[in-house]
Amino acid sequence: MKAIKMTIVALVTVLSLAGCKKDVEKTTLEKIQGRWNYGSSNHKEVYPPSTNNTYAFTGKAGEYFDFRTDGKLYVKMEGDPEESETYTVDNDNQISISGEPFVIQQLTDNRLVIYSKQVDPTSSDAYTEHTYTLTR
Predict the structure, then answer these.
(1) What does the pLDDT read at residue 23?
(2) pLDDT at 11 (0 to 100)
(3) Looking at the 3D structure of the chain, how many domains does it have?
(4) Does 1 reside within a domain?
(5) What are the helix and strand counts (H, E) for the chain?
(6) Of 46, 52, 56, 135, which one's alpha carbon is 20 to 30 angstroms from that of 122?
(7) Residue range of the domain that includes 87
(8) Are 42 and 55 spatial neighbours (Cβ–Cβ below 8 Å)?
């Protein structure tokens, strides 16, 4: 009888400890890795005094951004053939794609929004902006 009580106490102790396991938060890199559907993108070109263009694209079925564990990014969008880029996660708020820094504006399990602004080195008034919205 004493052995049965000790077995029950040990079993209850093991089950209580297993129930106390903390969920480990994924890193930004782990959250980004994998295949994302290309949802949309917005692009703006400003070259004063005459150029101020804005373009918007909506993703189609089969278009994607695929962030692989080896630091490669495979992109298929806007009807173009698949392209390969490199990427690094610089910190929780920034990713670089082929050396171009993008601010991570939103990152959830199902949505990634990245933004880049490049200022023209010959004119501080000239720039391009790119925003990509990806979903799972």
Answers:
(1) 75
(2) 52
(3) 1
(4) no
(5) 2, 9
(6) 56
(7) 30-135
(8) yes
CATH number where 123 lies:
2.40.128.20
How far from each other are the two terminal CA atoms of the chain, in whole angstroms? 55
Q: What are phi and psi of 126, to 5 degrees?
A: -100, 135
For residue 117, tell me if it sits in a domain. yes
- What was the pLDDT predicted at 22? 67
In a domain, 107, yes or no: yes
Q: Which residues have CB under 8 Å from 43's CB, separation 6+?
A: 54, 55, 56, 57, 128, 129, 130, 131
What pLDDT digit, counting tens, does each position of 14-48 carry? 555 555 556 788 999 999 999 999 999 999 999 88
- pTM to 2 decimals? 0.80
78 in a structural domain: yes
126 touches 46 (CB < 8 A): yes
